[in-house]
Amino acid sequence: MGKKIVVIAELTEGRLAPATLEVVSFARMLRGADPAEPHVIAAGKGTASIAEELALQSGLDVTALEGDGLDPYNAEAFKGALVPLLDAWKPEYICLPHTARGCDLAPGFAIALGAGCITAVEGIRKVEGSVGFLRSLFKGKVVMEAASETETTVLTVLPGAFKMMDAPTKRKGAVEFLLTDCAPRRTRPLGLVAAAAEQLNLSEAEIIVSAGKGIGSEENLDLIRRLAALFPKAAIGGSRLVCDLGWLGYQHQIGITGKTVSPRLYIACGISGAIQHTSGMQGSHCIVAINKDPHAAIFRIADYAIVEDLTTFIPLLI
Ligand code: FAD
Predict the structure, then answer these.
(1) From atom 17 of ligand 1, which residue's Cα is the shortest distance away?
(2) Measured between alpha carbons, how far is 205 from 222 in angstroms, rounded to an integer?
(3) Residue 255 Cα, ligand 1 centroid: separation in angstroms?
(4) What is the pTM of this model?
(5) Which atom of ligand 1 is found nearest the CA of 216?
(6) I want to staple 243 with a disulfide (CB 3.0 to 4.6 A). Which of 13, 41, 106, 253 is the partner?
């Protein structure tokens, strides 16, 4: 069948995770001048319409896979359904988002296929025909370049590291629909519990309003919430200190030991701009920083710098 690069799309309750579109960009970059386009597999429920949409948006060929056990997500069922396909195609690369699900599946695929596995990839380096994958180590202090020696390599791609493709392509990819029988035998998912609105997935938010220790008190989070509420697809982020203080849960933490994000707009409120924080948000398209210290490091990467006490400025902005 000869598919060289396969992207495994991530679907939850019939919705495509935006991280998939970043992995598509990554796969295209990896392919370079190679005429063989990446191929996408979308497994789950309601895949037919998602596959059509994806084929239209990306121009790539998509295999839509449905069967018992694929929704809600179940690792056993996914591996049961996808490994035979991947084994038949023997792709050079299998790419997934570096999400909880991607990290769950990648090692399983690698073991089943005898493939190498490189996780949290945030860059590609091509030199004279060899390909190296870049990933951070030691909290971003060191960047490691890893190469794989195996025929097939499984890669997880760090969300926020590659910009998702924006312009729809001219050509629509082909869609193939497959049914599988892969009901899990050992584990049974009991369903999904929706997170509260405030816990909107940071990697899916178009706008992130982020709180640093400079907000001064937990009560001042109200300002951050009111600012975020002005935008339709906004989420609340935080620096590690704010999470350590218990003002926000760790699911909001952005940075090297938290999430990596690249929203359209990132508003940093009372955040000093330590490297451990900025390495998780510097890929944002537009950064607005509000800080009363004109020498704050965050201003070095900000597109708009507001030197003001946030308790004065945010109410005015609202
Ligand atoms: P501070 O550094 O205390 O900065 C507060 C800022 O608010 C200051 O610049 C101040 O001028 C400003 N300010 C104060 N009052 C006001 C006001 N009224 N109005 C406007 N501005 C005001 N940090 C992360 O964020 N994410 C991580 O993933 C992360 N991982 C780490 C991993 C390791 C191994 C280590 C050692 C550290 C890590 N850190 C991480 C911590 C990081 O080094 C910084 O300590 C942290 O990011 C600082 O948080 P902050 O900017 O909220 O607080």
Answers:
(1) 309
(2) 19
(3) 10
(4) 0.65
(5) 15
(6) 253
